[in-house]
Amino acid sequence: MGQLKREDDVLIEKYFHIHTPSADAQRLFLYPQLSAFAVCDHGYFRSRSSYPHYLLLLIIQGSIFLTVPNHNYILPSGSVLLIDMRHPHIYGTYGDTLPQLYWMHFNGTSMPHLYQYIISNSNTHIFPADSSFILQFSNLIKDLASNEKQLSEMAVSAEIYQLLSHLKISGHQHSASIQPAINYIRRNYSDTITLKTLSSLVHMSIPHFSARFKHEMGISPYAYVIDIRLTAANYMLISSSQSVEEISSGAGFKSTSSFIKAFARKYKKTPGQLRRDVKMSLTELH
What we know:
By secondary structure, the protein is of the alpha+beta class. It has 11 helices and 10 strands. It has helices at about 25-30, 110-120, 130-145, 155-175, 180-190, 195-200, 205-215, 220-240, 245-250, 255-265, 270-285; strands at about 10-20, 30-40, 45-50, 55-60, 65-70, 70-75, 80-85, 90-95, 100-110, 125-130. The chain has a 6-stranded antiparallel β-sheet. A 4-stranded antiparallel β-sheet has the order 3-8-5-6. Strand 5 and strand 6 (about 70-75) form a beta hairpin. It is globular and about 55 Å long. The two termini are about 25 Å apart.
């Protein structure tokens, strides 16, 4: 088990574990590499162009945002995130409540195909967590860090397979009722989007659609549109040399001033400050 130097945007880190897999595990199993429980502050932010692990992250409290190529998400409490970190990704604190997270970096020779299998039908990186998943995942994180538990690599691999199987099943069970509206927002966030358009896509009245959307996503349709625009702008800030004005317009904001205010309210810093921070972060990774 390893010791972690806590980063400035992590208030509490518990059950931290570093695992070096055996040759047999690397050849045959799924295996953890890093895992922990964390309480993060309002400045919690991760931006990577590539990282050679897969990430399984469970949100116990609070919310985070996520940007991956072609997708933007807001993850409320009770959500599970599964991403292939070999591709560009950004995530961090969203809202006023400090996030509490169980997370695990893991890998395995079967993971590229298994990952695609899990997300293929659901077409999402976000899954609902029920009480059994929360209990199993949190216990696994604690057991990995425990000096008293002597888990075999095969047993740990079986646990990870069970957790991933749960995601596959829950992905099928996720309601498709509002998915057309979500897809429309993701494709057309730079355009004017109305509740009338969104509700008509799912054949609901505006009040019914608004209530159903907030129940499933944790935020209102309007708030979701704004967050998609902000996370898209966030991605453009680190992946292009466009000016703030160009990014504001491209992300669908009516004015640069309203964009900067919304951006600073969410990220606690201006677009220019974030762009400098991200460049420094990416430089350190290389």
